[in-house]
């Protein structure tokens, strides 16, 4: 972006090529003459956010939502298991006591490697996470709530 476009000024002399005396016709400088063209408008629709070199703020928010959906899926699966499969519920609660749920993908990968019984729990959590985010989560409400709080 050139600053000369903003003020409609010619580029500095050290940036312009040397004029050829034979072909160059000098025009008189008339500062009193009014400009007839409209000023150049810069179209910039996004702010630069420093400190997010590896990902945009939207990508970070999406990653946090991804982990949050895993947390929600674990809560849903745990509530379902508590009522009809207390043994699997105890296994899941014991696993939750040993492993952090901060990183949802890491949690599910570790749960899958634990045992075949735990692998079926992990697959169920992944399926519930997918269905919840696609069908049950109210994305429009999220946008309204976020805009309202900002």
UniProtKB/TrEMBL annotation:
<dbReference type="GO" id="GO:0015977">
    <property type="term" value="P:carbon fixation"/>
</dbReference>
<dbReference type="GO" id="GO:0110102">
    <property type="term" value="P:ribulose bisphosphate carboxylase complex assembly"/>
</dbReference>
<dbReference type="InterPro" id="IPR038052">
    <property type="entry name" value="Chaperonin_RbcX_sf"/>
</dbReference>
<keyword id="KW-0602">Photosynthesis</keyword>
<dbReference type="Pfam" id="PF02341">
    <property type="entry name" value="RbcX"/>
</dbReference>
<dbReference type="GO" id="GO:0015979">
    <property type="term" value="P:photosynthesis"/>
</dbReference>
<keyword id="KW-0143">Chaperone</keyword>
<keyword id="KW-0120">Carbon dioxide fixation</keyword>
<feature type="region of interest" description="Disordered">
    <location>
        <begin position="1"/>
        <end position="25"/>
    </location>
</feature>
<protein>
    <recommendedName>
        <fullName>Chaperonin-like RBCX protein 1, chloroplastic</fullName>
    </recommendedName>
</protein>
<dbReference type="GO" id="GO:0044183">
    <property type="term" value="F:protein folding chaperone"/>
</dbReference>
<dbReference type="InterPro" id="IPR003435">
    <property type="entry name" value="Chaperonin_RcbX"/>
</dbReference>
